[in-house]
C-alpha cells in the first residue's frame, strides 16, 4: 500500500480507530517481519492519536526489553511484575491506569506521563510482549482504547 496514512480528526475516538485499523491491516498484511510490523503500528498510532509515548516491550530471556516505539527515549528493561508493563505481563491482562502515581511500582520513564494503558501480546497462550501507551493527561484511556488496541494487536501474526 502507499505509505501515507489518512488521519481523521474531529471525530470520536471510535471513529478514529475504525479509520485507522484497516490501514494498519493493509500496512502489515503479507509482511512476516515482526519488528517491521511493530514499528509501523507504533508509528501509525502515534500519527493518529499524538500520544506521548506508544510502543512495544518484548519478552527476551525472562524480562521485557524495549522494542519499536514512538516518543521520548524509554527504560530499556523491565522485570516481570514490575511497573504497569511488568504487571500486565505477569497477570496476562490489559491494565488501564488513570493516574500512574496511584499505581504501586509504576516505572516513571518520563515525568510527563500521567496515565497509561498496557495490553499483553499473546502467542500460543504465552505473553510474548506488551503494547504500552502513555499520556501526559490523566484518565486518558478507557475500555474503548482497550477494545480497539486489542483488535490492532490481534492483527499481528506473532
Ligand atoms: N511506565 C511503564 C514503563 C514503560 S514507559 O512508560 C515507556 C511501566 O510502569 O511499566
Task: Describe the overall structure.
The chain is of the alpha+beta class and 158 residues long. The chain has one domain (13-154): Beta-Lactamase, CATH 3.30.450.40. The chain has 4 helices and 6 strands. Strands 3-2-1-6-5-4 form a 6-stranded antiparallel sheet, sandwiched between helices. Strand 5 and strand 6 form a beta hairpin. Helix 1 runs antiparallel to helix 2 (34-49) and helix 1 (13-28) runs parallel beside helix 4 (143-154). The radius of gyration is 15 Å and the shape is globular. The two termini are 21 Å apart. The mean pLDDT is 95. Bound molecules: methionine sulfoxide (SME). Methionine sulfoxide (SME) binds at residues 53, 74-75, 78, 83-86, 106-107, 109, 113, 116, 132, 134. This is Diguanylate cyclase. Residues 42-155 form the GAF domain. InterPro entries: GAF, GAF-like_dom_sf, Phosphatase_reg/MetRdx.
CATH architectural designation = 2-Layer Sandwich
Instruction: Classify the beta-strand content into a percent band.
Output: 25-35%
Runs in which pLDDT lies below 50 for 5 or more consecutive residues are none
Ligands (ions, cofactors included): methionine sulfoxide
Q: Give the terminus-to-terminus CA distance.
A: 21 Å
Portion of residues in helices? 25-40%
Overall radius of gyration? 15 Å
Shape: globular
Order of helices and strands: HHEEEHEEEH
Number of strands: 6
Strand order of the largest sheet: 3-2-1-6-5-4
What's the tally of helices? 4
Q: What is the CATH superfamily? A: GAF domain
